[in-house]
From TrEMBL:
Domain Centromere/kinetochore protein zw10 middle intervals: 247-431
Annotated Centromere/kinetochore protein zw10 C-terminal domain residues: 454-578
Source organism superkingdom: Eukaryota
Name the record gives this protein: Centromere/kinetochore protein zw10-like protein
Organism: Miscanthus lutarioriparius
Annotated GO biological process: endoplasmic reticulum to Golgi vesicle-mediated transport; mitotic spindle assembly checkpoint signaling
A Gene Ontology cellular-component term: cytoplasm
Sequence ranges assigned to domain ZW10 C-terminal helical in this UniProt record: 606-762
Taxonomic lineage from the root: Eukaryota, Viridiplantae, Streptophyta, Embryophyta, Tracheophyta
Pfam families in the cross-refs: ZW10_C (PF20666), ZW10_C2 (PF22766), Zw10_middle (PF20665)
Length: 769
C-alpha cells in the first residue's frame, strides 16, 4: 500500500512536469519562429504584411536547419544520460503495475459493500477481529506466566535438592532476582497468588539455609569456659558433611552469597567480644596457640588471666593484645578474606573503640596542663595501632573510622572538659554544703570582710562566695596559660560557676528571704561583691587570653544580673522591715486619747516596739552591709517610720492639754532610745563621740527630712498659738515639711475656737508656704 502510494505520487509529479515542459516548449518555439521572421524580412514586425515566396523558402530552410541541430542535441543528451533515463522508465513501469494491483485489492475489499448500503456489518466484523486479537494476547500471556511459574517451581525444587550449600545458595541468589522486586521490597499486591506462594516458599528456603549455616558457624567457633579458650574448627564437631556439617569458609561463603554474611558473622563477633576482647582490654593477658590434628584442623585462642601483667603508660601492650586477637580472627575465621574481615570489623570496632576509650584513653588524659606533653606517647602508639589495623584491612584506608585517633587528637579538649566538670563539681559542693545559719563564725565555714573592687568600701562576704570567686580566678588563670581550645573551656567553666551560684543560692535560701534575717543581708553582699568582681575580670585576664578568644569570651553581661539580684534581695528586706515596723505602729491606734492611762501605755509600748525592731535591724545590717548601702537602707526605713508616726499624730482632731504633753513625751522617748542608731548614720571623725550634738542633728536632718519634721512636731506640741503662727510666717515649718492644711488642722485640734485662733488661721492661709 505504501509503495503504491509512492508510485502514484511519483506518476503525478512526472505528469505535471511533462505538461509544464510541453507548455514551455510551445512558448520557446513561438519565440524562435518570431526571431526567424525578424531576421528574414525587415517588416516582419507587422502581422498584416504578407510573406513573399523567397521569404517562405528561406524560412523553411532555416527551420529545417534548426530541427536538425535540435535532433542532434537530443540524441547526444540521450546517449550521455542513458542510465538515468532507463531507471526513470523502470520506475514508471513499476508505478503502473502497483497502481493496477492497488486497484484490484481495493475492488476486492469493497466487494462486500456492494450489496449492503450501510457500514454496520463492517463495524461488527472489525470489533470481532479486535476481540479475537485481545483474547489471543491474553492466552499467550497466561501461557507465558504458566511457563514461568513452572520454571520457577522447578528451580525451587532443584535448589532444595542441591547437596552443596554453595550450590543451594547460588540457586537462591538467582531466584531472588526473579521473585523479589527491589522497588517494592519483595511484595507485589498485583501479582498472581501463585507468585506469592512461590515467594513465600523461597523466603522459607532462605530462612532454613540461613539458620542452618548460622548454626554451622556457631559449632565451628565455640568458647570453652573450662579452659578459657576460643576453639575454631574447620568443620563442626561430629559432622563430616551434610546440610550443616560444612567447613567454616564454605558456610561463610554461602552466607555471603545469600546476603546474610552479617547474620553469621554477628555470632562470631558476639563470641569474640564477650569472651576475648572485653577481657583483653580489661588488662587480662591473651596468648594465641595453634593446634592441628590429622582429621580436623583446630585453632585455639587461649584467654589466660594474670595479675602480674602491667600495661605501660602509652598503651602499647593493650594495643598489642587487641592486634593478636584480630590477627587470629583474620587468619583462622575470615581466612584472609578482606570482605569478611571488614564485616567483622563493622560489628566489633565500635565496641572495641568505646572500651579502649573508657578503660584506657579517658583515664590517661592528664589532670594538669603541664602533663599534656607526656600524653604524646599515647597519641603515637594509638596512631600506630590504627595504622596497623588498616594494613590488616580491618579498618578502611579513608580514616573515617579512626575514632581513637580523633579522641587523642582532641585530648586538649578532653582535658579541658574534665577540668570544667571538676570545677563545676567543686562549685556545687561549696554552695550546697555551706552553712548560712552561722555565717559570722570564724574558720572555714565563716566569712570575711573584703574590699569592693569599684567602691571605696568594705563589706562582709560569705565563705562560699569567696571560694566560688577563687574557682573563677583559677579557671581564668589556667585559660591565660592554655591554647585557644582549652582556654575556651576554662572560660566557659568560669561562667558556669557564676551561673551555678545564681541558680542555687536564691532557691536554697528562699525561706530566709521571707523574713528579716542576717542571711539575706549576706547574700545581698555576695551578689554585690560578685558583680564588682565580674566587672574586673576583663581588665585582669582579657589581655592574657589567646587572641582568638579576646572578643569571644565576655563576662560583663553577667555583672548587671548579679547587681540586680543584690538589689532585689535588699529591696525585699527593706520592705519587710517597713511592714514589720508599721505593724508595731498600728498597735498605738493612731495615738488617740493618750491622756488616758490605758491608751498612753498602749502608745508607749508601740514606740518601744518600734525602737526595738529598728535596733535589731541596725545590729543585723550595720556590720554586714557596705556603709553607703546601710545608710541608704536604714534611712529609707526610718523615713517611713517617722512619716507614719507624724502623720498619725497630725490626724488627731482634738487634743487636750495633758494629751499634748503625753505625745511630746512619746516623741522624746523614741528619739532618746534611737540615739545609737542615729550615730551609726552620720559621718563622725571623732570615734569617741557617743552622744548627739548640734552638728550631728544637722547631719541627720539633712539625710532624714522626716526626722526633722518629727522633731519639730515635738516642739509644736509645747508652743503657743502665736508662736506657731510666727513659725509658719517665718517659713520654718515649711522647711521642716509641714503643709498649710496640716498646720491649720493642728491648731484647730489643740486650741479652742476664738477670735485669736481665727485671726491666726487667716494669717496662715494668706501666708504662702
Amino acid at each position: 500500500m505504501s509503495t503504491l502510494g509512492t508510485s502514484l505520487a511519483a506518476g503525478s509529479q512526472a505528469a505535471a512536469a511533462g505538461a509544464s515542459s510541453a507548455a514551455g516548449s510551445q512558448v520557446q518555439a513561438a519565440d524562435d519562429v518570431r526571431e526567424l521572421l525578424l531576421s528574414t524580412t525587415a517588416d516582419a514586425s507587422d502581422p498584416s504584411t504578407p510573406l513573399s515566396a523567397p521569404d517562405l523558402r528561406l524560412l523553411i530552410d532555416r527551420l529545417r536547419l534548426r530541427s536538425d541541430r535540435l535532433h542532434a542535441s537530443a540524441l547526444s543528451f540521450a546517449a550521455s544520460n542513458r542510465g538515468a533515463l532507463a531507471n526513470a522508465l523502470l520506475r514508471a513501469a513499476s508505478a503502473a503495475d502497483s497502481s493496477a494491483s492497488f486497484k484490484s485489492s481495493l475492488d476486492s475489499a469493497l466487494a462486500p459493500l456492494a450489496s449492503s448500503p450501510d457500514l454496520s456489518d463492517l463495524r461488527a466484523l472489525a470489533d470481532r477481529l479486535l476481540a479475537a486479537r485481545r483474547e489471543l494476547a491474553e492466552r499467550q500471556d497466561h501461557l507465558a506466566a504458566a511457563s514461568t511459574i513452572a520454571s520457577l517451581a522447578s528451580r525451587l525444587r532443584e535448589a532444595r535438592a542441591a547437596a552443596s550449600p554453595l550450590d543451594r545458595a547460588a540457586a537462591v541468589a538467582e531466584l531472588k532476582t526473579l521473585l523479589i522486586d527491589p522497588d517494592r521490597s519483595g511484595s507485589g499486591q498485583d501479582d498472581p497468588v501463585v507468585f506469592g506462594l512461590l515467594r513465600s516458599d523461597w523466603e522459607q528456603l532462605v530462612d532454613e539455609l540461613q539458620v542452618g549455616l548460622g548454626k554451622n558457624v556457631e559449632e565451628c567457633v565455640e568458647f570453652a569456659p573450662e579452659g578459657g579458650k576460643v576453639v575454631v574448627r574447620a568443620t563442626p564437631r561430629g559432622h563430616s558433611g551434610g546440610s550443616h556439617g560444612v567447613e567454616l569458609p564454605v558456610a561463610l561463603q554461602a552466607l555471603e552469597t545469600i546476603d546474610a554474611l552479617g547474620y553469621g558473622m554477628a555470632k562470631i563477633a558476639d563470641t569474640m567480644m564477650k569472651h576475648v576482647l572485653v577481657p583483653a582490654i580489661s588488662y587480662i593477658q591473651v596468648s594465641v596457640i595453634e593446634e592441628g590434628g590429622p582429621e580436623h584442623s583446630v585453632s585455639v585462642l587461649s584467654v589466660v588471666p594474670s595479675e602480674e601483667i602491667k600495661d605501660n603508660k602509652d598503651g602499647s601492650n593493650l594495643y598489642s593484645r587487641i592486634i593478636d586477637v584480630i590477627k587470629f580472627v583474620c587468619k583462622f575465621i575470615c581466612m584472609e578474606n578482606s570482605k569478611w574481615v571488614q564485616y567483622f570489623a563493622k560489628l566489633t570496632w565500635p565496641r572495641i573503640s568505646d572500651l579502649v576509650i573508657t578503660h584506657f584513653l579517658s583515664k590517661a588524659v592528664p589532670n594538669e596542663a603541664s602533663k599534656l606533653i607526656e600524653f604524646q606517647d599515647v597519641v603515637r602508639s594509638t596512631v600506630e595501632f590504627e595504622n596497623k589495623l588498616r594494613t590488616m584491612m580491618f579498618l578502611s584506608p579513608d580514616r573515617k573510622d579512626g575514632k581513637l585517633t580523633q579522641f587523642v587528637d582532641d585530648v586538649e579538649v578532653h582535658f579541658a572538659v574534665r577540668k570544667r566538670s571538676e570545677i563545676l563539681v567543686k562549685a556545687r559542693n561549696i554552695l550546697v554544703q555551706y552553712d548560712y545559719d552561722s555565717p559570722l563564725e570564724s574558720g572555714d565555714q565563716g566569712g570575711s570582710v573584703v574590699d569592693l573592687l569599684f567602691q571605696p568600701e568594705k563589706c562582709f562576704t560569705s565563705k562560699s562566695a569567696l571560694l566560688v570567686m577563687k574557682l573563677v580566678h583559677g579557671a581564668l588563670k589556667d585559660a591565660s596559660l592554655s591554647s585557644a581550645r582549652v582556654a575556651k573551656e576554662f572560660c566557659f567553666a568560669a561562667r558556669d560557676v557564676l551561673l551555678l551560684y545564681k541558680a542555687i543560692v536564691p532557691v536554697q535560701l528562699e525561706k530566709q528571704f521571707d523574713s528579716l534575717s542576717q542571711v539575706a543581708a549576706i547574700v545581698h553582699n555576695d551578689f554585690y561583691h560578685l558583680s564588682q568582681e565580674i566587672l574586673g575580670l576583663a581588665f585582669q585576664y582579657r589581655a592574657d587570653f589567646p587572641s582568638d578568644l579576646q572578643k569571644q569570651v565576655v563576662f560583663v553581661d553577667l555583672a548587671p544580673i548579679f547587681s540586680q539580684m543584690a538589689d532585689a534581695v535588699l529591696r525585699r528586706q527593706i520592705q519587710l522591715a517597713v511592714d514589720t515596723v508599721s505593724e508595731a505602729i498600728d498597735g498605738a491606734e493612731g495615738f488617740q486619747n493618750t491622756h488616758q492611762p490605758q491608751h498612753y501605755e498602749s502608745a508607749k509600748f508601740s514606740i518601744e516596739q518600734v525602737v526595738f525592731i529598728l535596733e535589731k535591724i541596725r545590729i543585723m545590717w550595720e556590720s554586714i552591709l557596705p556603709r553607703s548601702t546601710y545608710r541608704k537602707s536604714m534611712c529609707h526605713v526610718l523615713g517611713s517610720v517617722f512619716s507614719r508616726i507624724t502623720r498619725d499624730m497630725l490626724l488627731i482632731d482634738d487634743m487636750a492639754a495633758e494629751e499634748t504633753l503625753q505625745l511630746q513625751g512619746l516623741i522624746h522617748l523614741a528619739l532618746e532610745n534611737l540615739s545609737s542608731l542615729f550615730l551609726s548614720l552620720v559621718e563622725n571623725d571623732d570615734d569617741s563621740t557617743k552622744f548627739l550634738d548640734h552638728d550631728t542633728w544637722i547631719q541627720l536632718d539633712g539625710i532624714l527630712p522626716s526626722l526633722k519634721k518629727f522633731r519639730k512636731l515635738a516642739e509644736l506640741l509645747d508652743m503657743s498659738l502665736k508662736s506657731i503662727t510666727a513659725c509658719w510666717e517665718s517659713g520654718d515649718l515649711a522647711r521642716c515639711g509641714f503643709t498649710s492644711s496640716e498646720v491649720q488642722n493642728f491648731i484647730k485640734a489643740i486650741f479652742a475656737d476664738s477670735p485669736l485662733r481665727k485671726e491666726c488661721l487667716g494669717w496662715i492661709v494668706r501666708t504662702p508656704a
